[in-house]
């Protein structure tokens, strides 16, 4: 299993907008549509990645626990589906239904949204405050497939709890580790 770390972009970076199709409902969603009044979590995930499979249940719990507290959620899949057919939108829909995703699962076919966010891996997490400024990026928690550490979402939960308590989110943040985004081949122009 190759391991790719997330890009730790600068805190305070504004959230890039998007307009993508949700594979569950076939509706289009923008950043404004998924925005929460306390904060917004954008997750880059995929179907085939063992790191995402390892945390799927926790991201569903996280969304269930924090949506009612004013957070918005969206998951985005940006992989090249021609070379990675397990990530095709039909399979995205099946995964979302099986895990009962309560958030939009958006298909970034052009990969422009992943590039705008500087996403590098799946899973990759970006938490924005109520002004859509980046306040947390990196890992869900310290658990990885096979390391024996329980999945609990602790790092991301701590950041969201800090927002709810009007406290500063710790800037001591660890990059996420996962499968690389599967980029389409783009010859240099």
Automatic annotation (TrEMBL):
One of its GO terms (molecular function) is antioxidant activity. Pfam families: AhpC-TSA (PF00578). Residues 9-165 form the Thioredoxin domain. InterPro entries: AhpC/TSA (IPR000866), PRX-like1 (IPR047262), Thioredoxin-like_sf (IPR036249), Thioredoxin_domain (IPR013766). It comes from the Bacteria. This is Alkyl hydroperoxide reductase. It comes from Salegentibacter salinarum. The lineage of its organism: Bacteria, Pseudomonadati, Bacteroidota, Flavobacteriia, Flavobacteriales.
